[in-house]
Design goal:
Blueprint lengths: L1 E4 L4 E4 L13 E6 L1 E3 L3 E3 L6 E9 L2 E7 L9 E4 L2 E8 L5 E5 L5 H4 L16 H4 L7 E4 L11 H6 L2 E6 L22 E5 L1 H9 L2 E5 L1 H9 L10 E5 L14 E5 L6 H10 L1 H13 L10 E4 L1
Parallel strand pairs: 1-17, 3-12, 3-14, 4-11, 14-16
Antiparallel strand pairs: 1-2, 5-6, 6-7, 7-10, 8-9, 9-10, 12-13, 13-15, 16-17
Helix pairs in contact: 6-7
Amino acid sequence: MLVVDRKAGRFEHRLFSDFESFLSAGDLVVLNDTRVIPARVFSDDGRLELLLLEPLGPVSWRCLVKPGRKLREGGVIVAGGITGVVREGYTDGDRRLEFDAPLDLGRIGNLPLPPYFARAAEALDETRYQTVYARAEGSVAAPTAGLHFTESLMARLPHAFLTLHVGAGTFRPVQTEVLEEHPMHSERFDLPQSTVAAVSAAKRVVAVGTTTVRVLESCALAGGGLRSGPGRTNLFIRPPYDFQVVEALLTNFHLPKSTLLMLVSALAGRELVLEAYAEAVRERYRFYSYGDCMLIV
């Protein structure tokens, strides 16, 4: 674990087992309890691949299709003996598919590992790619900062949960010349009233993962406090940004040009983050989903 002290502008190399030592009385650790679903589905003929992004009804899904040119509006796919028809295409390339019966993802679905893994999910991934506190099913990617936690550690930490279902947009790099023109992906979340109360009583909020940050900052009220309940967020946090809730962050090391890296830079400062990443490279830290982590205090 690379610890970044943003006020002092210095780094410290520690183990994640030292995480507790950086907490003080009154701190609250907030985590995303979403659970990754087996959202990767192949057609029965093996020619098409679907990534089920979000349920739109009992038999309707928003999907990413590969290769997309083979499944346009009105196109048909059969997966697990269930027939689906493309009812609508979206401007971002996703499609709305309607099936003639609910899909049995437990039988035909596969765990959707990130694209840069360049391999199919293995048996070990079924548990390794879920946090120990994963509960609310709905993500196509794990909130990977939470993968470091164990049940025994959780039992000792003052913590609260929220839910944000991570979408495929988390892997899409910024490709626009002007940051403000980047079409930020929208994701579903739920912030319980119990978590709002815990955050309000905390002296410092330590967010686990960028997804947790986006929910808390999206729910911040102009006059102070938080609103609870379900919603959607397409909040694009980038420098400069005035954080309203989050004061410390545990996060993994992210892909270049990603919105996640820009969020981290908004909290710690772009130059300090670049120095931290260079330090991590020199010290051979592991990057991305199954990698090491960085604690920003």
